[in-house]
Amino acid sequence: FIDRPDNRTDDDLNNVITQDEQMLRILDKVRTVAPSNAPVLVQGETGTGKELIAQALHNLSFRTKSGQIVALNCAAIPETLLESEMFGAEKGAYTGSDSQHVGRFERADKGTLFLDEISDLSLPLQSKLLRALQEREIERVGGSQPIKVDVRIVACTNENIQQIVDQGKFRADLFYRLDVIRIVLPPLRHRPGDIPLLADHFLEQYNKEYAKTVQGFSQEAIQVLTSYQWPGNVRQLENAVQSAVIQTQSDLIVAGDIDLHRDESSPPPIEPVSQDHSDRIPFQVGMTLRDLEKEAIMRTLEAHDFNQTKTAETLEVTSRTIRNKLREYDKPESQ
Ligand SMILES: Nc1ncnc2c1ncn2[C@@H]1O[C@H](COP(=O)(O)OP(=O)(O)OP(=O)(O)O)[C@@H](O)[C@H]1O
Ligand SMILES: [Mg+2]
Prior knowledge:
Elements: H1 21-33, E1 40-43, H2 50-59, E2 69-73, H3 79-87, H4 104-107, E3 112-116, H5 123-135, E4 137-138, E5 147-148, E6 152-157, H6 161-166, H7 172-178, E7 181-184, H8 194-209, E8 216-217, H9 219-227, H10 233-247, E9 252-253, H11 289-303, H12 308-315, H13 319-330
Parallel strand pairs: 1-6, 1-7, 2-3, 3-6, 8-9
Antiparallel strand pairs: 4-5
């Protein structure tokens, strides 16, 4: 007989949209491990849903009534403030502190402490965190009394921590303490079946938010979405759909509405766009010039990761021409 937290149903996981086998297995694992107090390490590229999973782990635990989930982003807070954010500080612990400060560990007592971007934690703080986890107690900065804390740790990272351990930048003993249950979220490009599903989900969400009535995506638009590599994963897809919903002129999102302006600072996806002969257009007598042109535009778009500006440059036309052509291809009567 496995005791389950009261009133917890799969509703807590319903906001995780997926139909992918591997993701569904991960959700099963989340349901299974959530009620235990074991630490969980969630690994995955940026935008793959790590925070969503951390929240689900808390929602499906026994800790929702006794405590809350408290987040601490180890990369966002300056090193000098991180210790007191984590463990709290007594009055007068440092210059300018004229009141006592309760840290995130204490606020997460009997709940979940969600340590985001754990790999960015400095070595001195790693030692302090390790001690807190081993002793199950913390000391506020400037304090002398240890304080008992009962927290469940969910740590997230978008890096391979094992590598950082091997480089000597992350303590192996802390890593093993955090890495009791590991959940690795696959990048969106490895679950292409989820792309149309998520796109529809975000379409509905942003229709509501902007009081729009966009009905769906054209075939070409879906083709653009499913063949893109999504280095920013689900978050980037969400942003693309949001921007298309706002900008579309019709009740259907067409390929030209999808603006995949890539952040120049983000590295290009590792996988090549295609390994086949997509740089060649098969021509058969019977094809129209229009068919050939469409083929040329779609292939060039694909080769440029759907960047319309670069496609226009390659084909020596204006971006406006590309946009207009894409709109035209999406019109059913012109097929
Ligand atoms: N499977 C999913 N279903 C629905 N929404 C999702 C899914 N995965 C991610 N999202 C949404 O995508 C966005 C990014 O997800 P989240 O913040 O959990 O990513 P992350 O892995 O924590 O990213 P980062 O490493 O950049 O912090 C959020 O708005 C989240 O709600
Ligand atoms: Mg996150």
